[in-house]
TrEMBL record:
<dbReference type="Pfam" id="PF13041">
    <property type="entry name" value="PPR_2"/>
</dbReference>
<feature type="repeat" description="PPR">
    <location>
        <begin position="183"/>
        <end position="213"/>
    </location>
</feature>
<dbReference type="Pfam" id="PF01535">
    <property type="entry name" value="PPR"/>
</dbReference>
<protein>
    <recommendedName>
        <fullName>Pentatricopeptide repeat-containing protein</fullName>
    </recommendedName>
</protein>
<feature type="repeat" description="PPR">
    <location>
        <begin position="148"/>
        <end position="182"/>
    </location>
</feature>
<feature type="repeat" description="PPR">
    <location>
        <begin position="324"/>
        <end position="358"/>
    </location>
</feature>
<dbReference type="InterPro" id="IPR002885">
    <property type="entry name" value="PPR_rpt"/>
</dbReference>
<feature type="repeat" description="PPR">
    <location>
        <begin position="219"/>
        <end position="253"/>
    </location>
</feature>
<feature type="repeat" description="PPR">
    <location>
        <begin position="289"/>
        <end position="323"/>
    </location>
</feature>
<keyword id="KW-0677">Repeat</keyword>
<feature type="repeat" description="PPR">
    <location>
        <begin position="254"/>
        <end position="288"/>
    </location>
</feature>
<dbReference type="InterPro" id="IPR011990">
    <property type="entry name" value="TPR-like_helical_dom_sf"/>
</dbReference>
<feature type="repeat" description="PPR">
    <location>
        <begin position="359"/>
        <end position="393"/>
    </location>
</feature>
<comment type="similarity">
    <text>Belongs to the PPR family. P subfamily.</text>
</comment>
<dbReference type="Pfam" id="PF12854">
    <property type="entry name" value="PPR_1"/>
</dbReference>
Length: 458
């Protein structure tokens, strides 16, 4: 019988790298040589690999067991990147307290904290929207490490995301006082935050300041932020001038720029300019994508111009840009909003033949529209299909539907609907109480034990 090869520390690292299943990788790590029970000399690379595999798989209990084992190692000092990865995994999983704890424990592993682990922690807290905890770090940030431009960029981003532009600008001033030169990310984050908060004058002043003083050229992200901000307040002509500036400075225009401007033009009734922009897009090697077309569909539906909306849908298919579920949901919502329920239902039924599967938003939109239009039989059919697919209507929609059935006195259909809702476990206590109260007030089913049994079973 062939003797099994002994797994060496080097070979273990190779095997861990090849093993795709994190559970099997963990078994291999914990017991690399089943026939040789003596202690195994793990390498720092083996720890790095197994921690990364467990972290990506969100097997945090198992990962923490390995971390505790690593803490007891005396043969080497773990690299800081291992702890950066752990903090990142916790941040992605929305576990800010665990991220904070591992950052605090880094010295326990005899590893020195640097700005890398600090920035990783701040980014994890930002991902978890723990803005207050980030502000706490800002107060005593120098006691950990010397912050760099990335540190301040993350802090500025946090203030921008919490719509606190005053403090975002304060951090910007502070970094300059400390001699840290802002970079393209700093300016891009600030300008985007100013635009989102409708502080367009300040955004353009900062853009000018950036170019003249820091010699930083705006990139596509800057322009998209400014163009979106201008279009949000219907300053379409200024947005078009910025688009021309992008062309002059040879900044690559993508579909996001064109989609924003096209949507704005349609909203202010300047439809005639849209087709020129579409031609320009193609000339510049930027084909309209789903975002561009969906923006057009949205505006046409908002204006109740459904012929044009369907025209865009057909053009998408002709151009090889397959409409997605958002394209159909926007039109169905628009049709329901103006009471064109038959057309909405026809488009819904046509979706599978167009190779687009309705999602929960599609069903809810159509169900709500049918309920609002008192088309209860059609709504009941959609509801039954929703429940079969595992979708749940909004509670307010169910209550409105049930109330409408009771008011109409269609108790047979009401019984069927409650039966469907019961199958989907979608009857809330409030609905149960409302139905019971309404039915008894109308004195329709006070003696109908079958109906009461249905409610109890629900």
């Amino acid at each position: 019988m062939e003797k099994l090869k002994v797994v060496s520390p080097f070979r273990l690292s190779s095997l861990l790298r090849l093993q795709k299943d994190p559970k099997l990788a963990l078994q291999l790590f914990l017991n690399p040589n089943p026939d040789k029970p003596k202690p195994f000399r793990y390498s720092v690379l083996s720890y790095d690999l197994i921690i990364s595999k467990l972290g990506r798989a969100k097997m945090f209990d198992e990962m923490e067991q390995i971390i505790e084992r690593l803490k007891r190692e005396t043969r080497f000092i773990p690299k800081e990147i291992i702890f950066c990865n752990i903090i990142m995994f916790y941040g992605r999983a929305r576990l800010p307290d665990k991220a904070l704890r591992i950052f605090a424990e880094i010295p326990c592993f005899r590893c020195q904290r640097t700005v890398k682990s600090l920035n990783t922690l701040l980014d994890a807290l930002l991902n978890c929207r723990e803005y207050d905890k980030m502000r706490e770090f800002l107060v005593g940030i120098d006691k950990y490490v010397c912050p760099d431009v990335c540190t301040y960029n993350v802090l500025i981003n946090a203030y921008c995301k919490s719509n606190d532009m005053g403090n975002a600008l304060n951090v910007f001033d502070e970094m300059q006082k400390k001699g840290i030169k802002p970079n393209v990310v700093t300016f891009g984050t600030l300008i985007n935050g100013l635009c989102v908060n409708s502080m367009l004058d300040e955004a353009f002043k900062l853009k000018e300041h950036m170019v003249k003083i820091y010699k930083v050229r705006p990139n596509a992200f800057f322009y998209v932020s400014l163009i979106k901000g201008l279009c949000r307040v219907n300053k379409v002509d200024f947005a078009l001038k910025l688009k021309e500036e992008m062309l002059r400075y040879k900044v690559e225009l993508d579909s996001a720029v064109y989609s924003t401007v096209i949507s704005a033009l349609l909203k202010v009734g300047r439809k005639g300019e849209v087709y020129g922009l579409l031609d320009e897009m193609r000339t510049n090697g930027c084909e309209p994508d789903k975002v561009t077309y969906n923006a057009m569909i949205y505006v046409f539906c908002y204006e109740k111009n459904f012929d044009s909306a369907f025209g865009v849908l057909n053009e998408m298919e002709e151009k090889g840009c397959k409409p997605d579920v958002i394209s159909y949901n926007v039109i169905i919502h628009g049709l329901c909003r103006v009471g064109k329920l038959r057309e909405a239902n026809e488009l819904f039924e046509d979706m599978p033949s167009r190779k687009c599967v309705p999602d929960v938003v599609t069903y809810r939109t159509l169900f709500d529209g049918l309920c609002d239009g008192a088309k209860f039989k059609e709504a009941a059919f959609i509801l039954d299909e929703m429940v079969f697919k595992g979708y749940v209507p909004r509670a307010a929609s169910i209550n409105k539907f049930v109330s409408g059935l009771v008011q109409e006195g269609d108790i047979k259909l009401l019984w069927q609907v409650l039966d469907s809702l019961a199958k989907g476990n979608s009857i809330e206590v409030n609905t149960w109480m409302m139905v019971t109260s309404m039915v008894y007030k109308k004195d329709k089913l006070s003696n109908d034990s079958e109906f009461i049994d249905t409610l109890i079973m629900a």
